[in-house]
Amino acid sequence: MEISYFARIREDIGHGSEIISLPENISDVNGLIKYLCEQGKNYETAFKNEAALRVAVNQTYVDFDHPVKDSDDIAFFPPMTGG
Amino acid sequence: MKILVQDQDFDIAAEISELCGGRTDIGAIVTFTGLVRDFHGDNKVQKMTLEHFPGMAEKQLEAICKTASDRWPLQGGTVIHRYGPLIPGDRIVLVITLSAHREAAFEAAEFIMDWLKTEAPFWKKEQTAKGEHWVDAKTEDNKRKDRWT
Questions:
Q1: Looking at the complex, does the CB of residue A4 fall below 8 Å from at least one CB of chain B?
Q2: How many domains is chain B partitioned into structurally?
Q3: Which domain holds residue A21?
């Protein structure tokens, strides 16, 4: 699974993307966030405020209960501020 | 509609000419240009950096323009969004809409901007005398987007 991070989330975590092997017991975005938070304080900081977190699976915005699988491309980022 | 996500500046007149050159069926051209302001509240903005999600940014802009084209009788249009380091006065975003009549062109341009603000994956970071900070999303922007639904 490839995971990308943008803007504040990227800075909190310390890198823009990574490839992980998705543990078999993780089935949705919520589970993935919980797993990542166990990987270090930087992830905990990045994900602590869910109101300021957005997620895309394969470049489509989804909710946190959306299913994930190892072949997905995931992206985490804050609410958008373009324009 | 033409969609571009680029670090370079754009030329509004050249973009209009490209859309309208030789055509006589167009009755209205609306353009919106978003610029970098030199203030945010009481803080003076020195620089701005725009980060984007390559691939998804283009995809979202295309989806927004498709929705606009389905909703209003447009005869064409262009959306250009820049990324990278910018300074006050720099152009950030361009929306051009063409229609036979002004109402559709005005409304579609506003719709595209309102949706782009909250649905296209771009993020602004401002540098002021007090340091750098990510710009927070505004609830007002969500309200502006929601009034179209």
A1: yes
A2: 1
A3: 2-77
* Gap between the Cα atoms of B146 and B149, Å rounded: 5
> Does a structural domain hold residue B94?
yes
Confidence tier at B41 by pLDDT (50, 70, 90) = confident
Instruction: Mark yes or no for CB contact B53/A8 under 8 Å.
Output: no
Residue B53 counted as domain residue: yes
Q: Which tens digits make up the pLDDT trace of B71-121?
A: 999 999 999 999 999 999 999 999 999 999 999 999 999 999 999 999 999
The 10s digit of each residue's pLDDT in A27-36 is: 999 999 999 9
B120 in a structural domain: yes
Give the whole-angstrom CA distance, residue B56 versus residue B20. 28
Q: Are strands B91-99 and B84-86 parallel, antiparallel or unpaired?
A: unpaired
Which of A78, A76, A81, A82 shows the shortest CA–CA distance to A32?
Answer: A76
Longest Cα–Cα distance of chain B, Å, equals 52
Alpha helix stretches (DSSP H) within B30-149? 56-71, 102-119, 139-146
Shortest Cα distance from A67 to chain B (angstroms)? 20
Per the domain annotation, does A34 fall within a domain?
yes
Give which of B17, B19, B31 is closest to B91, Cα–Cα. Answer: B31
How many Å lie between the alpha carbon of B120 and the closest alpha carbon of chain A?
Answer: 7
Contact B76, B1 (CB under 8 A): yes
B138 within some domain: no
